Amino acid sequence: MKRFDLIIVGAGPSGLSAAIEAANRGMNVVVFDENEKPGGQLFKQIHKFFGSKEHKAKVRGFVIGEQLLKEASEAGVTVVLNATVIGLYQDKEVVVKIGDGVEHYKADSVLIATGASENMVTFEGWTLPGVIGAGAAQTMMNLHGIKPGQKVLMLGSGNVGLVVSFQLLQAGCEVVGLVDAAPRVGGYGVHAAKIARCGVPFYLSHTIVKAEGTDCVTGVTIAQVDKNFQFVEGSEKHFDVDTICLAVGLSPMSQLLKMAGCKMEDNPKRGGQVPICDEFGATSIPGIFVAGDVSGIEEASSAMIGGRIAGITAAQYLGFIDKEEQLTKCEENKKALDGLRQGMFAPKNRGKLVEKTEEGIPVSMNLLEKGFIANDEMERFPGVTHKAGVHPVMECTQNIPCNPCQDACPKHCIKIGEKITSLPAVDESVDCIGCGMCVASCSGQAIFLLDETYEEGFAAVTLPYEFLPLPKEGEKGYGLGRDGKVVCEAEVVQVKTAKAFDHTNLLTIKVPADMAMKARFYKKEA
């Protein structure tokens, strides 16, 4: 029976981060993962991450995955793939199914980083082919290059539902609507806004009545629900679709911990059945640690930091580092983690309606209820200014832990300050040079460059664009408003791509001067 200092189950963001920290401190580490490729959910995530530099902000998920794999290899971590862990026992014996065989391993410490599984909801026809989870859609698109369907309805307006809806649009699918039984958008407003301006309608306080079809999905009926989540008679709406995508939450995959005898609790705020653990990821059984979604559902950025903390703690548990080093290094990581747990979407605010920003500005109710900011709400936010020449307009209106725009601007036109959740503001004493780095760096695609005096009677709007094929200079089309409806005619005057933009193209359109604060997307003439 082969022995290791540390066995890690799960080669996702938290497991790899833990492995790197432990191996860098001299531990013999092996990571088992049931998949063909390591990296967990990271390789499905083609969007840019939020946070700051230390959280790998504005870096796309799959790139972060590549970085972690390289670090793990350099640290000497052994990663075993197509290896399903089917048993974990109190004496830290791990049973692994590899191919047709079953093998047993022992370790002085074990770290479980198995992540979470997608939740499902039941409705008439929910077992038909064509009803899939949002994670499955991501796997099909971003790992295998397969369109999940042609016409898709998304159920769920949390970050997963919003992000995957946008990726469906990028893959060339038509998203007929985004549905949620809750009365308000559950995820980041910037994610909702970039979908709304593409013309996707939001149906909040609605849910699915039934999926239609015999052998596969051919349509779907939704209906409004009341405050008791009962269908409102006469509110039914029908859509012809071939795919229904479900993004209705995640549940920790904590079965191995329960098998090992770790103390568990049913904690809805953390996603369900989770182990009782301390701030360092140590469970009730000495030497068994946890990290990532298995200990509570959070973003991948938080999972990576939690993994680092658990990996450092495992090294201290076995005497590879002393207590002082553990506490010092863990404290550094905890500060970074605390930064991600602030703002409107902090764990303490889950389920609450936050009506004002930290700055005391009323939150856009239109954004929460319809997915986009109303024109008459936009001017009250500090990211909106009007001056001659090119200048940034930042439609980031919620306190989200993110600040890459502040670092991206070479002239320091944009200021957020030390508090990472503060709304971005424009320093009007500094002249923008129109480089577009802020537009490209914004993880929420919420920054635009405006030249309200571009030509007599016309303004220029530079917007982020991540669709193919790219429009061509001189092309004629339409400017779409924040709600995705046509507001004016538009002409493409510039298309900029650069390595520094990391596949976020800058599209500049010429629009009537009075449309400068309204046109937020471009659509080619049919």
TrEMBL record:
SUPFAM superfamilies: 4Fe-4S ferredoxins, FAD/NAD(P)-binding domain. Residues 386-419, 422-452 form the 4Fe-4S ferredoxin-type domain. InterPro entries: 4Fe4S_Fe-S-bd, FAD/NAD-bd_sf, FAD/NAD-binding_dom, Metab_Enz_Cyan_OpOx_G3PDH. The keyword tRNA processing does not apply. Signal peptide: none annotated. It comes from the Bacteria. Keywords: Oxidoreductase. The keyword Repeat does not apply. Pfam families: Pyr_redox_2. This is FAD-dependent oxidoreductase. It comes from Jutongia hominis. The lineage of its organism: Bacteria, Bacillati, Bacillota, Clostridia, Lachnospirales.
